[in-house]
Every structure is written in C-alpha cells, then in structure tokens.
Amino acid sequence: MNAVLGIGGGIAAYKAAELARALVERGVSVQVVMTRAAQEFVRPLTFAALTARKVITDLFAASGEDTLASAVEHIRVAQEAQVLVVAPATADLMAKFANGLADDFLSTLYLAFTGPVVLAPAMNSNMWNHPATRGNLETLRGRGHTIVDPEEGALACGMVGPGRLADPARIAAAVLAVLSRPRDLEGETVLVTAGPTEEPVDPVRFLSNRSSGKMGYAVAEAAAARGARVVLVSGPVHLSPPAGVSLVKVRTAEEMRAAVLEHLPKATIIVKAAAVADYRVKHPAAGKIKKSGQRITLDLEPTPDILAELGRTKGERLLVGFAAETGDPLPEARRKLVSKHCDMLVGNRVDREDAGFGSDDNEVVLVMRTGEAVALPRAPKREVADRIFDYLLKLRDAS
Length: 399
Fold this sequence. Notes:
This protein is α/β, with parallel strands linked by helices. It has 2 domains: 2-179, 3-Layer(aba) Sandwich (Rossmann fold); 189-397, CoaB-like (Rossmann fold, 3-Layer(aba) Sandwich), CATH 3.40.50.10300. Helices cover 34% and strands 25% of the residues. It contains 14 helices and 19 strands. The chain has helices at 15-25, 44-51, 67-71, 73-80, 91-99, 105-112, 125-129, 131-142, 168-179, 214-225, 253-263, 306-313, 330-339, 381-397; strands spanning 2-7, 29-34, 83-89, 117-121, 146-147, 151-154, 160-164, 189-194, 199-202, 205-207, 229-234, 246-249, 269-272, 279-281, 300-302, 318-325, 344-349, 361-368, 373-380. The protein has an 8-stranded mixed β-sheet, sandwiched between helices. A 5-stranded parallel β-sheet has the order 2-1-3-4-5, with helices on both faces. A two-stranded antiparallel ribbon has the order 6-7. The chain is globular and about 70 Å long. The two termini are 34 Å apart.
C-alpha cells in the first residue's frame, strides 16, 4: 500500500509525524511531501527518519540533481500512490486544491493524482468558519474527497473552538479505510445518471427541481473507486466530476434519454439517480413570455420514462432506480421496483433539511427484487453509495 502524505504549514504539522508513524506501522509505504511553510514548523529529517524515504520539499531539482527526473517527479509520485492524504490541510492548501492552483509540488501533485484524497483540515476557528473556506470545503467534498473534520478545543492562537487537527489515529483510520476499499467492480461498465433536468418554457425560463446531483456523483465516484469504468450522464449541476469518470452533460429529459441509450450497449450496471422532470411544456415559446398581469396556462405533456424503458430492455444488466418522496418512501419504492422492472430501488425522503436534495448526507431504504428491504441510517452520500453497491453485488452473487 502506497500513500502520499502532504503536510501544510501550520502548528499542527508536528502531529503529522505521529500520523506517518501510524501508517508505517500498519504496512503503508509513505512518501512525504512538505510545503515550504510546513518546513518552518518541522524539519524534513524527522519524516525521512520515520518513513525511511527522502522527503520531497520542492518542485524543482536542487543544484547537482537530475533536473529531467525532477521535472516529472510529481507525475511519477501521483502514479505510484494509492491515496493522497493531506494533514494538516491548511486554508491556503484547500483554496489551491479547490481552484486548481499549482505553484508547488503538493498542489501540482494534487492535480496529477486521480485516486482517492483524504483531507484533515486544521486552522484558526475564524478561518475555518469563513465563507471562502466553507465554499472550498464544499467543492472538495463534491469531488468525493474524504474530509476528516477538525476537532474543537484550545487552539495555538489562544482561541477555543473548531480547528484542531483531528487525532492522528482518526486520520490513519480514514486512510486505511480508503486503502481497503474493494475493487469488486473491475471489468464492469457502470452507467450513472445524476442531477435534475431542465425543460424549457421559453428561452429564459424552464421547469426543474431541487436536485443537486450530489447523490449521483457520489455513486459515480464510488463505482470508479471500486474499479469500474464509469459513464456519468449529468443534468445541470454545480459539481466537479469525480476523477476517472467520463462525463456527458445534458439538459433536458429527452437529451438524457438519448445519452443513456447511446452508452447503454456497453453498460453492465445502470444506476438511475437523476431526478428527471416528469413533465415538459408541449410547445415552448419561441420568445420570452412578457409579464402582462394576465393568467397564463402551460400545456404540459409527460417526459420520456427512461427508467421504465430501461427496465423493459435491460436484459442481463443490473438496474437501480431511485424514488424521491416527501414522506415514507418504502411504499412507492416497492411499487416502482415492480412497475419499472428494477433489481434495486433506492427510496429517499427529500422533504428533510438534513438529508436528501442539496444535503451532503442521505438516509435511504433499499428495496431488492427479492422483496428484502434494508433501511440505511443517515450517512454521507459517498458512504451511502458504497452501501448501494455492497447490496447490489450481494444480490447479483445470490442469483
């Protein structure tokens, strides 16, 4: 098992030594990368002694070193590693990662790395709570990165509040959990739909829903992490696609249907997590509808039922559908499972603030073609996505 340990510049950098030792003791080969600021708090020699490897401290070769090898070292390190963990992940580093800035070895390595990322933030409480930091954190969560949230307590600056680096044992456990994820989808092609669709009313208005796409993107990220080739057909969302996933952008239900059918022949597993609009305007206006103070009537017609069409033609493929409900999702999940000919139906409530649409968490019930129903407690959507695949593969293996 190979890991890169990136160390940012903060007083918590000294705790990274304990993390490095914990990973090495558990059989992980650790390559440490230190930012220039990190070296002001801890010397590279400490980590070289703990990992028995040279610590990388600069993007460019020192005088007398192989400049050609140095120029591509970030690519080599990115290809060899199975996980990138950054502790402490400072506000500066998270801003660089979120916005694609690459001005040192660690930030350049981040852009070249396609595997799972574990971030353990540590900073002053005000910096942690600043809208810019929260926005960057949301972006990084949206990419499927594992965030080991900081703890509350006395900080080096004298404040008391959130911002302390998580216990190194917690971070090590998160890294080992990532490294132990199964590769049980190798050889599979997973077709995932995500997000809402937008059905035009006129050139400036449309009918849509509140789906953020986070659940579908989490499913795509989980499938890729487990070794699958993944095609993600996505409606309009404000999310970055997971690493290694082929993204197909669509807007309307008809466009989503066409994209799904185009990629269907190679798919072995289909997960329809998109919240497709049920109706569209039959004849959208060619120009903007002006406000006149009069009532207007929209003539709506049903959109294509993509899930039902897939259920009729799925053959040997595994088909997973979703049912977004404002109440107990189990009855509708059971009905939809049968009517759409799915192998699994994921029912979730979307009338809660702490789960469902827009949230990073979800609480769902899985209904299987065997009749079994499994309620999953509220958890991060990435974790829920893995549980979906766990049960889906059990269902397949039991057939």
